[in-house]
Structures are given as structure tokens and as C-alpha cells.
Amino acid sequence: MEARQKQLRRPGRGAAAAVAVAALAGTAACGAPDGSGSAAPLPSSAQSSAQSSAQSSAPSSAPSATAGAPEKALPEPGEKVPASAARMAAALKETTAALNDAIDAWTGDGAAARGAPPEDVELLALYQQRIYRHAARHPEVASRAFARLPSALAAQARDNTGAIRELLALARPIKPTAVFRTQPARPAAELLGFFKKAERRFGVEWEVLAAVMFAETKFGRVKSDSHAGAQGPMQFMPATWKAYGLGGDVQDPRDAIMGAANYLKATGAPRDYQRALHAYNPSQAYVNAILLHARQIKRDPRAFYAYYNWQVFVLTTEGERRLTGP
Questions:
Q1: Where are the alpha helices (DSSP H) in the chain?
Q2: Which of 107, 227, 244, 323 could lock onto 263 through a cystine, CB 3.0 to 4.6 A?
Q3: Going residue by residue through the chain (326 aa), what tens digit of pLDDT does each one get?
């Protein structure tokens, strides 16, 4: 893995940094018989060996800050999420601005991302995700916090929180002893190329395809099958894959994205995304979440790279845990 760029300074880890944080990724099945999302099983250890190897990197040779300017600390993976509306608004505004700058540095202000995500992108995206997860569970505080934000960021915050809330409604708590497999995501630029190729072939917007993969498996980080038997990074039921998978490998990201575009096209997209997404997973909450996330990417392509760095969380009967990420 290439060396990560560092534009902000990360403080040393404290004991609290190893504590898993509360959030949740809901997954669903293409062609599933019902509208419930699946929370896949959990391993005895919080991180898989593949995930650990994905996080290792060589030291960066890039400068950490402009000469003479004070460095600003990056948030720790377990950084506390502010409880008050004023502090939540300030944290979200500052984190999102810093994340956008870090993404611009990574992608070259709109070009394709180069290499692995820099450490600042990973940590800022994780903290942003955790703020939104907290906001989804505390709607009254979130409403007051979002009222303090600039209009564009407030709209983004409401969409993200609304989408998370919809997916949380589909989650199923699992036993802490169950087995849950994760793996590193394929490079963001590679996935983006697959999404755009599928759009050219089938006419299904790449932002919608990206939102589906994000909601289903956090861009392929979830390796386990769903509770209903859905497989691969786009979570296809075997019969649906046989009909629409174009003879490809359901576990291969390129083939899975092409199959998803084929299926969405056959069920109504791009003319009727509501109908097509409901066929993909018969849940209005799922449809709403996908369209909200897709709208964010259309508003600002940096949202794709932010979502790419959001991590996998599962809900267990003993609480929620983060399984991937720094």
C-alpha cells in the first residue's frame, strides 16, 4: 500500500482510542423476499486480519502543514461526539470543511483519487460518520444543531442523518459471538471507474449504483453473506444473480456492479428509481436512504470519497461495534 499523505497531525493514541464506537451499517439483499436489512454476524475480535493489513502504511514524506502554521490534531478513532447542539454544529462544520480540503488534496481538486486514502481523510470521515450516527439517534439535539449550520451544510446534514435513520430502522441485533467477515475495499478510483462504465452501458446513474454499494457493504468491506443469503459487494440473492448477473462472479466488484445496473435497468431505472430500488429491496426505508445518499454525491462528488471512508458498524445484543477502519 502506498504511503499515506498527512496534512494534519494525529495525537498519540490513548486507552480510549481502542474502544469501539456506536454506529450501524444496514445491509440489504437484491431480490430479497422481504424488506428487512441484514446486520451480518460479528467476530470474536473487532478487526479481521485482512482489515488490519489494509490499515498498515509507510510513513508519509509529504509535509504535514504549511511552513510556520501550527498543526491541528486529527480526531482519534474514538473521539468524543459533542452532546450539545452548539458543540455538535461546530464539530460538524469544522470536520466537514477539513474533510473536504483533505479529499481535494487526495484527488487533486476533482481528479481521480490517487492510491490509498490518506490518514487525514480516513480519520476525518470516520469522525463525520460518528457525528451523523449520533445525530440520527438524537433528533431533537440534531435539529437544533443543524439550524446553526450554513444552509448547504444543513441540507447535507439532514439528508445524511435521514438516510442513516432509515437504515437503522432495518437493522437486526446479532449475537456478539457470531462470525462476521470483513475485507479491505477496492481502491476508490477503481470502483468509480466500474460505476461509470455501468452507467454508460445501462443508463443507471453512477451515483445511485455507488449509494447501493455503500449501503449494502460499505463498498465491499462486508464479506459475509446476509442473513437472507445475499452475496457479494452488491448483495445479490442467488436466483436474482443467475438471472441478471451476466454470467459474472457475484463476489467480483466489477461484475457485481454491472449486474446491479442490469437489474435496476430491468426493473425501471433510470425512468423510475423508486420502482427499481424497491425491486432491489422491497423497503421504502431502503429506497429513501439510497436516494438521499445518491443526492449527496450528485450535489458534491466529494461525498463519494467521504462515504468511501465511512466504516462498517454492527448492532449486537450487547451494543454496537465498529469493525473496520483506523
A1: 49-55, 85-107, 119-137, 139-146, 151-168, 188-202, 206-217, 238-244, 253-266, 273-280, 284-299, 302-308
A2: 244
A3: 333 344 444 444 332 222 222 233 444 456 654 433 333 344 333 333 333 333 333 444 444 444 455 567 999 999 999 999 999 999 999 999 999 999 999 998 666 788 899 999 999 999 999 999 999 999 999 999 999 999 999 999 999 999 999 999 998 888 888 888 999 999 999 999 999 999 999 999 999 999 999 999 999 999 998 888 999 999 999 999 999 999 999 999 999 999 999 999 999 999 999 999 999 999 999 999 999 999 999 999 999 999 999 999 998 899 889 999 99
Three-state DSSP at 148 gives coil
For residues 295 and 34, give the distance between their C-alpha atoms in angstroms, rounded to a whole number: 25
CA distance 91 to 107: 24
Q: C-alpha grid cell for residue 60?
A: 508519509
- The position carrying cell 498527512 is 6
> Are 112 and 302 a contacting pair, CB within 8 Å?
no
Q: Are the C-beta atoms of residues 235 and 219 closer than 8 Å to each other?
A: no
Amino acid symbol at 213: M
Backbone angles phi, psi at 321, to 5 degrees: -140, 145
Q: What is the pTM of this model?
A: 0.81
Do you find a cis peptide bond into 270, omega within 30 degrees of 0?
A: yes
Say if residues 43 and 179 touch (Cβ distance below 8 Å). yes
